[in-house]
Design a protein that fits this description.
The protein has 830 residues and is mainly β. Helices cover 5% and strands 61% of the residues. β31 and β32 form a beta hairpin.
Length: 830
């Protein structure tokens, strides 16, 4: 009886026993990228039954793109291969009873276009992919990208943080470089936050976080590189046009993006414009000078508001003369036309608390920034893996920032206080020429060893013709030309670089080692002869090495070391003093050299159909970090300048989790914790402490195609050399739905911080001479509605060469590029 019962219980499982006992038919092959012909590692491989199309087996490709998968019996099957951001590859496979092995040879996978056709989603496509030198977040596969901006999407990207004031950090550091399709724009790199607020995420394919750049990347950027990829590389036919529009309490925006292909000629373009309105902000500042009896405590209360019109656009085109010769060209424009107004009350108190003097200041600023660039890349492929690329790029960035300042309600001002009404009209322009040659080739027939080498030259020119008018504060007299503060200025920079990089891919191992040399020469002159010319030069050798090991399918461990540099731009270097009030003055340091940061990292990555996990432990240190510091001179004036003497150490643990809990429920977590230690023996300053950042959310798909998102996060206060930077908390809700055939119409509603809408950002600096505290009250509420509509169908994009120009190699102190910093050198109170 017991045997009969046991047989009865085992009977339903007998087919499974038979299956597992006969898995002796094997399908193998290699998967490569259709354009680059490089192996596609960690792609998902599935065997589907016919005609049910149900998955029977699953596996992943190895680092060299090779794969194998087994079947239990002969018959007809469908082999499916999938990789992040790329169109699945499907092949009909017939297994004969007398043939135990089928070799598909090399299969090629193409990238998706940003607009996908109709598909039935049975499992969420992985959003994050880890490679030896970078992490990639697939914006195209995130449904929130349909109506969000790039800045909002950055909060989800591993190892990237965006605080409440929209300041961006990579790997805990604000010193990083931004590339867009490998071709950066000076203004975007100098102020990515402003551009990303207006850039629609629907125009983005993916974002690469490169925290361990190899020798082929520019050495500048202490934290690494943030690469925004906007175009795909596939080559089918058709067209598509996508329109986006949004409106909210912060302004309005509209954009249009289109792609098309005509034979061997492909073109893509997008253009957007909008209006941004920053709600009123109040800032309360206290500056206490310990050694001053009269000018002891300065209180400044300021109200400010700003608004402006922005625009952005890109045009990319390519023509494939032959399979070995490819020409691609591109052009871009970014611009900002803004207005800013400030009203402040400045009050000085004696050490006993009695009033000393006071005055009101009102100012209006008109800013006009434009950035135009054009480039061309020619690539010749001697073989599929041996390629020569020649590139040229031109950038032009005219900028003007007109400032008018009035002072009134003057009370008991000290004699010779020097307060003036000002009218400043600078005319700034920067342009640069860049030429680059790159060569890549395998060193053996099996392509286990690969070498890349190249040279690069940049010629950069900034000029400023600043005209300034002034009059004594409180006067009704006409403004008079101030010859001393009106300056003509020229700044020329020459940069030369060369690199050599070696790559190894063998079995489960991958490794990369390289070296780069850069030389930078700066010359500054004043054609009107009002100031003495000065200059400097810097040379840096930058090594890097990394290694990775594929622990198992979908699991990777990698470690690396790299050195990054931070070169000062002219606003760091100019020794001439800039003062907008008699109580404070700012100037640079011409003796600064390149900051060198050493970085060690260990990363574990795991990718599965439902769970993606990435953890990175990073340790970085620098012994000559550039830092802004403040001190009080013998006249009681607060001086702010720069030094290259900061000793810094930071240990950071970053984690990223994307978990599909149920078919319609996904949880996302992007968090980090760090300990920082800063010392400056020259100043006698030392500060250290812990900080943490978290951004997490829940995405829920509901009936009637409704998608609900809940996001919350923030960061604790962070230590600086002489004080602390502010922390913040933010939350948001979103509700979206798609309509019409192929989900061509999408509508998204968003609301953030609608309860407790005001947030205080408190910054402090404390030395043995002074105490400085700033408290800014911002309106954090955000309400918006977005609409997206797509016409046509296209699964292609403009082809790109494998290597192109990637510029942006100096540290900047302001929100604009070189010329704006030069305005400080060109017009200021001595």
């Amino acid at each position: 009886m017991n045997k009969i019962t046991l047989l009865t219980l085992l009977l339903p499982f007998s087919p499974l026993v038979a299956v597992y006992g006969q898995s002796n038919y094997t399908i193998k092959g290699t998967l490569c990228d259709s354009l680059t012909r490089q192996p596609e590692a960690y792609a998902t491989v599935r065997l589907l039954g016919v005609p049910s199309m149900k998955p029977l087996k699953a596996n992943t490709t190895q680092l060299d793109g090779k794969f194998s998968i087994t079947a239990s019996k002969p018959g007809k099957y469908v082999l499916e291969l999938m990789s992040i951001g790329k169109a699945p590859v499907r092949r009909q496979i017939t297994l004969a009873a007398d043939k135990r092995m089928v070799d598909t040879d090399t299969l090629y996978i193409k990238e998706y276009n940003s607009t996908l056709g109709v598909a039935t989603v049975t499992a969420q496509r992985p959003l994050v992919k880890a490679e030896l030198d970078k992490l990639t977040y697939s914006i195209a596969d995130d449904p929130d990208a349909k109506t969000n901006t790039v800045l909002e999407m950055l909060r989800k990207v591993p190892m990237v943080t965006v605080d409440g004031e929209d300041n961006i950090k990579v790997n805990g550091n604000a010193s990083f470089k931004v590339y867009v399709d490998g071709k950066p724009n000076q203004m975007m790199s100098a102020n990515p936050s402003m551009i990303f607020k207006a850039y629609p995420a629907s125009a983005i394919q993916k974002i690469e976080v490169i925290t361990n750049p190899g020798a082929k990347y520019d050495a500048e950027g202490v934290a690494g590189v943030l690469n925004i990829i906007t175009n795909t590389k596939t080559s089918t036919s058709g067209y598509t046009v996508t329109a986006n529009a949004s409106v909210g309490n912060r302004g309005e925006m509209g954009s249009l993006m289109g792609m098309a292909q005509f034979g061997k000629f492909m073109i893509s373009a997008h253009y957007g414009a909008g209006y941004h309105d920053q709600p009123n902000t109040t800032t309360n500042v206290e500056r206490e000078l310990y050694g001053e009896n009269d000018s002891h405590l300065l209180k400044s209360d300021t109200e400010s508001e700003s608004h402006g019109i922005f625009q952005f656009g890109n045009l990319d085109a390519s023509y494939e003369f032959t399979k070995k010769d490819l020409l691609s060209v591109s052009a871009g424009i970014h611009g900002w036309n803004g207005r800013n107004s400030n009203i402040s009350l400045n009050q000085m108190f004696r050490v006993d608390g009695s009033p000393y003097y006071s005055y009101h200041v009102a100012s209006k600023t008109k800013s006009l920034y434009r950035s135009i660039n054009a480039s061309a890349d020619y690539q010749h492929a001697f073989t599929d893996d041996t390629k020569l690329t020649m590139s040229y790029r031109y950038d032009n960035s005219p900028q003007t920032t007109k400032v008018k300042t009035w002072n009134d309600q003057l009370t008991n001002l000290p004699e010779n206080f020097g307060l003036k009404d000002l009218d400043t009209d600078p005319d700034n322009l920067s342009y640069e020429h860049t030429a680059q040659v790159d060569f890549t080739t395998p060193l053996d027939k099996k392509k286990t060893h690969t070498m890349a080498t190249g040279v690069k030259y940049i010629r950069r020119v900034n000029r400023s013709n600043s005209v300034e008018y002034s009059r004594p504060a409180g006067s009704d007299a006409d403004m008079q030309l101030d010859e001393e503060r009106s300056l003509r200025y020229r700044h020329t920079g020459n940069i030369a670089a060369a690199y050599l990089e070696y790559n190894l891919k063998k079995g489960k191992w991958s490794a990369m080692a390289g070296s780069r040399y850069e030389y930078y020469k700066v010359d500054v002159s004043y054609p009107d002869g009002k100031r003495e010319a000065f200059g400097t030069h810097m040379s840096d050798w930058v090594p890097s090495i990394s290694a990775g090991f594929n622990l198992s399918d979908g699991k990777m461990l990698k470690a690396g070391y790299n050195m990054r540099i931070g070169r000062p731009d002219i606003s760091y270097l100019s020794p001439y003093k800039v003062s907008y009030s008699p109580e404070a003055v700012t100037y640079g340091n011409p003796d600064l050299k390149s900051e060198k940061s050493h970085n060690l990292d260990l990363t574990y990555s795991m990718f599965g159909p439902k769970l993606t996990f990435n953890a990175s432990l990073n340790y970085s240190f620098s012994n000559n970090g550039m830092v802004s510091y403040s001190f009080v001179d013998e006249n009681g004036v607060a001086n702010t300048t720069y030094g290259g003497f900061q000793h810094s150490k930071m240990t950071m643990l970053s984690t990223y989790i994307n978990w599909t809990v149920f078919k319609c429920t996904t949880i996302n977590l992007n968090a980090s914790a760090s300990y920082s230690d800063y010392k400056a023996h020259v100043l006698g300053s030392h500060n250290s402490g812990f900080s943490a950042n978290l951004w997490g959310g829940l995405q829920q798909t509901m009936p009637w195609k409704l998608k609900l998102g809940l996001w919350l996060g923030g960061n604790t206060r962070q230590v600086t050399l002489q004080g602390k930077a502010p922390g913040f908390f933010f939350y948001s809700l979103s509700l979206s739905r798609s309509f019409l055939k192929e989900d061509r119409l999408g509508i998204n509603l968003q609301a953030g911080n609608f309860i407790g809408r005001y947030t205080h950002f408190r910054t402090s600096t404390v030395t043995n001479q002074m105490r400085y505290v700033s408290d800014t009250r911002n309106d954090m509420m955000r309400l918006s509605i977005g609409v997206s509509y797509r016409l046509g169908s296209l699964k292609s994009g403009v082809k790109k060469v494998d290597r192109s120009i990637e510029n942006d190699d100096v540290m900047r102190t302001g929100n604009s590029s070189g010329a704006s910093g030069d305005a400080n050198a060109g017009g200021g109170q001595q």
